[in-house]
Each structure stands twice: as structure tokens, then as C-alpha cells.
Amino acid sequence: MKLLKTLFVLALLAAAAAWALVVTGTYDVAADTPHWPATYRVIEFARTRSVAARAADVVVPDLDDPALLRNGAGNYAAMCVSCHLSPADQEETELSLGLYPRPPRWDALGAVEPRIAFWTIKHGIKASGMPAWGRSMDDRYLWGMVAFLRQLPGMSAERYRAAIAASPGHSHGGGETDIGGGDPHAPQAASAPRSSFEPVDDPMSAPAPAQEHDDHHH
Question: What is the pTM of this model?
């Protein structure tokens, strides 16, 4: 009984100390000041277990599908290089240098288990700079990026550039292709090539604005 009381008192003291760190502003949240080692280990462990638990039931498609790889290459070049770099862009960017935790480099991404990679790309990670791309992209396009990530380790700059050149560019069905500079309302060329993952009536496309009728003309 005495031991339980002691443990209870110690827990209260620890909670009070933690609350004091928060209330007084002692804990530094600046991105250029790393977490305390113990804090980092706890956060990393929590992140790893959280993602693993939620990604366990994800069904992985055929990641060797050439069409999937082509689509993933273009979206990786448009959406991921600024943080994760690439075989052809290995110099740190202003964005990658300023993020904390530092984003993993391209040559480490291919080692991530596909279910984990897909869940992370789709849902993002809180307070890390990793966006939830699933808010604007259908799953098939997310899997394209996962498929391409698996090809990155050992990829040469020349092979990377060839893969990007052969891709449909930044395309995931929401009007964000290179044509029109990513403006969903920009005119699209009728003969523009479409990705095999970009159906004509894509569910991710923004609805067309309603036409206004002029009552002065009949």
C-alpha cells in the first residue's frame, strides 16, 4: 500500500512538472531546436505503432504495373522532390533544410513497407510537414507513388529523368496536370494525352461551374 502511494505521488509530481513546462513556455517548439532525445524516442515509437496498426489491413495492388509506375513517377517529381529530393536532385532545398523532423531522402523511401508508405502518403503525419495527399488524390494515384518509391533505391539520375519524361506529369484526376499550370479552370487541350489512371469522368475532378443565364437575351 505504501508503494502504491509513493508511485501515485511520483506520478502527480511528474504531471505537475510537465504542466509547468507547458504553461511557462519552457518547452521550445521551434523547428530548429530538436526534441529532447527521450521526447523524440517516445514520439517516434508512437508514430511507428500508430501507422502500423492502421495500415495492417491495407490491400497492396500489383506494384509492378507499368502504368502505375509511369503515373507515380510524374506525381513524385511534382509533389515529393522538394522535401525528399531525387537521384537527379540531390542538393538539399530550402524546404528540406527547414523541416523538423528531417524528411527521409529518396534513397531511403524504397525500403518502407508498401502498406506503411501508402497509409503515410494518404493520411500524412501530424506536426511533421508530411501532407495528407488522400484529401485530394484517389487511392490509385497514391499507389502509383508507392510503386515508384520502390524503384528509387539505386536508381541513376539518367534513369530517373527518363522515367519522369515518360510519365504523364502531375496528374491525378483533379485538373492539376502541367497543362494550364495546375489551374483546374484553365483550358485543356482536347488532344492532350491522359494517364490510364485518369478516366474521362474522374470522381476527383472539380464540378463545372453552373452557367449563368442572361434574362435580357432570349
Answer: 0.74
Give the count of beta carbons closer than 10 Å to the beta carbon of residue 5. Answer: 9
- What is the separation, in whole angstroms, between the first and last Cα of the chain? 90
* Cα 60 to Cα 64, 75, 140, distances in angstroms: 11, 19, 11
Q: Is the pLDDT of residue 33 over 90?
A: yes
3-class DSSP assignment, residue 145: helix
**CATH number of the structural domain spanning residue 73:** 1.10.760.10
Q: How far apart are CA 167 and CA 69, in angstroms?
A: 8
pLDDT (0 to 100) of residue 174: 60
Task: Give the DSSP per-residue string, 161-210.
Answer: HHHHHTS--S-SSSS-STGGGG-TTS---TT----TT--TT-TTSPPPPP
Which three three-digit cell numbers place residue 102? 528531417
Does residue 118 lie in a domain region?
yes
